[in-house]
Amino acid sequence: MSRRSSFVLCVLAAGLSPLACTSQAAAPPPGRSAGAGGNPSFDAKPEVVTPAVAPVVAATVAAPTPVAARAGGATGCEAARFVLEPGTVVAKLDGQDLRASDLGPELAKAEAAALRTYCDQVGTLRKQALDATIDERLLEAAARKAEFTGSGSAWLQSEVAKQIKPPTDEEIQAFYDANKTDNAPPIDQVREQVVNAMVEEPTQNAIRGLLSGLRQGVELQAMLPDVAAPPLDLHDEETTAGFGPRDAKVHVVEFSDFECPYCVRAAAAVTGLKERYGDRVRFSYRHFPLNFHPSARPAAEMAQCAVAQDKFWGFHDAVFASTEGLGAAGLRAAAEKAGMDLEALDACMQSGKAASQVDADMRVATEAGVSGTPNFFINGRPFEGGPGQLAGAIEAELQRAG
Fold this sequence. Notes:
The structure is a single chain. The protein is α+β, with helices and mostly antiparallel strands and 402 residues long. Among the domains are: 123-226, no CATH class; 241-401, Glutaredoxin, CATH 3.40.30. It is 48% helix and 10% strand. The strands form four sheets. It has a five-stranded mixed beta sheet with strand order 6-8-7-10-11, with helices on both faces. It has a two-stranded antiparallel sheet with strand order 1-9.
């Protein structure tokens, strides 16, 4: 599948900007078919997956006591923590006390994960609100300076329009013809989606460039309290595939699925990162094959066998570039293209070692709160942007690291 084809697949099938394949969505985007050669599809009928629902247990629980916030307000995630002391009586059963210590170690683990989610979401929401306010003020100032008669957002739209020209009928038709499948609807039914697919990324790049330019030379002192959760420990195992020095100041970890169409686009971004940052950044690839992608799990295990032969990146690139599908034959072809020893590959797959390594990655992913792919972490913190925004986030982290 080509990089463009994967992008179109996601946008045209879902009618939305590409984000991620997720195990939580009621209607996840269509994956790369194990036998269809990864061709893009205009059919807006994604497969339906029923998300897992955790059992709910009713109980009467004593009100937890919040930890006192630091002077001047909460300035760290720990200040938001609720403490349930081990000896706290949380229920009575036939007159017998049930205490917090009886609730098991999984509760503490779940509470820690919930606290991280809360803190990270609050931190993200505050930063987004601050950035939006700053951008709004800068846009209004830019409009006044240009003697523009409309609002700041209208000025931004006019500036973007100067950079992004609507595609011609011929360009739209060519794009459609290059990515349609045999069962694709007529172009007049998906024309708007095709145009959106063609202009979405250039438009976002233009907006980011204009906003970034407005911030140049402006004195800005950020004073927003940091309430984000502490970084996660996502250190590499000996069998973790990666590039760049292990002691690099910036460590990017991707949890990915070889059958996820969004991960195809991420793979292109990763290739750019390898070329751009060399030995300044450590990039690690970890597995999170989703249960509605039947070929993702065998591909992940085969990739770990490729690690053992020092052929991972060749296999990685061959799989994401494959036009033969991700069935057994397609994966075998990718292994051959990567130059793998096929007898050693078969022995590795039969040994179960690769399977246990994939299982280990999935446990780490679950504990980190991963529910979809691609999912990136930078220095142990979740990255919320798209693959095209990774470089900017890495640059910011390199500046912080000094």
